[in-house]
Design brief:
- The chain is an alpha+beta fold.
- The chain folds into two domains: 203 residues, 2-Layer Sandwich (BirA Bifunctional Protein, domain 2); 46 residues, SH3 type barrels, CATH 2.30.30.100.
- The chain is built from five helices and twelve strands.
- A hairpin with a 3-residue loop joins strand 5 and strand 6.
- The radius of gyration is 18 Å and the shape is globular.
- The protein binds biotin.
- Biotin (BTN) binds next to helix 1, strand 3, strand 6 and strand 7.
- It is an enzyme of class 6 (ligase).
Length: 252
């Protein structure tokens, strides 16, 4: 399918912009990049803050973009994990010791402890016709990645950045590497689901084997993800398959 690529100097949020367009009936495949976001969003209603383009220099310290396209997968769970696997493999290679790790369900970490970026998956229904499970929806995959080191005010650990992974990476180079593999991954997910991504996620799983606390306060040990992308947590009441929750890693 043809894709249009658009670069905006500034927008509130690339994901908000594509969702607004979809609600207005504009559902063509689009990759929207912003040099500066004024109201970037994360999961669970959080803000995603990134430094805007450095004035007068043109340097873009964070890569913020969203990819929107119609998709009709069997189910949506696992999609943000499949995106995370794809981003990590494109930027980190598939060597024996992965440096970019994935924290279920949507964080990219560098090594085991610092956040490199995040993924936000949203969908909009098409305006007309009854909605059924297999009908296409317009999916908007938003990705934010720190590229250059930033001063972390008020954060206990400074965020990680792509320059630590590969000193030759810029926002533009990273995007160039990611764009086509991401489209392919989304189409692959629609056809085959999460299962082919599961072992690739497992290699980078930050939580595996670690003590975790769920948002309801329950504690347990993470045991990887199911072939549908649910987080498996062993708790006092047995193994639970968690499809959506806030997970924090328990200090050991
Ligand atoms: C998270 O860490 O919770 C997800 C962060 C996702 C940020 C990206 S930046 C591009 C796109 N536009 C947004 O407003 N959010 C996503």
């Amino acid at each position: 399918p043809g894709f249009s690529v658009e670069v905006l100097a500034s927008v509130d949020s690339t994901s908000s912009e594509l969702m607004r367009r979809a609600r207005g009936g504009r559902t063509e495949p689009t990759l929207l990049v912003a040099e500066t976001q004024t109201a970037g969003r994360g999961r669970l209603g959080r803000q995603w803050k990134s430094a805007g383009v450095y004035e007068g220099t043109g340097v873009v310290p964070a890569l913020t973009f969203s990819l929107g396209l119609p998709l009709a997968p069997q189910g949506w769970s696992g999609l943000s994990l499949a995106v995370g696997v794809t981003v990590a493999e494109c930027l980190d290679g598939t060597g024996a010791e992965p440096r970019i790790r994935l924290k279920w369900p949507n964080d990219l970490w560098l090594a085991g402890d610092r956040k490199l970026g995040g993924i936000l998956v949203e969908t909009a229904s098409f305006a007309t016709g009854p909605q059924t499970a297999e009908q296409p929806r317009y999916v908007v995959v938003g990705i934010g990645l720190n590229v250059l080191p930033v001063l972390a005010e008020g954060l206990s650990t400074p965020p990680a950045c792509l320059r630590e992974v590969d000193t030759s990476l810029s926002a533009a180079r990273a995007l160039k590497r990611l764009a086509l593999p991401l489209v392919q991954a989304l189409l692959g997910f629609a056809e085959h689901g999460f299962a082919p991504f599961q072992p690739r996620f497992a290699r980078r799983d930050v939580l595996a084997g670690r003590g975790v606390t769920l948002s309801n306060g329950q504690q347990g040990t993470a045991h990887g993800v199911s072939d549908e992308g649910a987080l498996l947590v062993h708790t006092a009441t047995g193994m639970q398959a968690i499809t959506s929750a806030e997970i924090s890693v328990r200090p050991q």
